[in-house]
Write a structure and sequence with these properties.
By secondary structure, this protein is mainly alpha-helical. It has one domain. Helix content is 88%, strand content 0%. It has three helices and no strands. The longest helix has 26 residues.
Length: 69
C-alpha cells in the first residue's frame, strides 16, 4: 500500500523524471498486490492488477512521448 501511495504522489509531479519514478512504483505495486493476491487466492485482485499494470505501462509510454516532443 505504501508503494501505491508513493507512486500517486510522484505521478502528480510536473517533472517528467519524477512521473517516471511514479509509474515504476505503480508497476512495482501491481506486482506486489498480485503476489499477495496469489497467496490469498484472490483471483479478481490479480486480474485487476494485470489491467492496472497495462494502464500504467500506457502512462509510462505517454509520459516518455511527451518528453521527446
Amino acid at each position: 500500500m505504501v508503494m501505491t501511495v508513493l507512486a500517486a504522489w510522484c505521478i502528480g509531479s510536473r517533472r517528467p523524471d519524477r512521473r517516471k519514478i511514479g509509474f515504476c512504483c505503480f508497476i512495482a505495486s501491481n506486482f506486489l498486490w498480485a503476489a499477495w493476491g496469489w497467496q490469498a487466492e484472490a483471483w479478481a485482485l490479480i486480474i485487476l492488477q494485470v489491467c492496472l499494470c497495462g494502464m500504467n505501462l500506457r502512462g509510462w509510454r505517454k509520459n516518455t512521448q511527451h518528453e521527446i516532443c
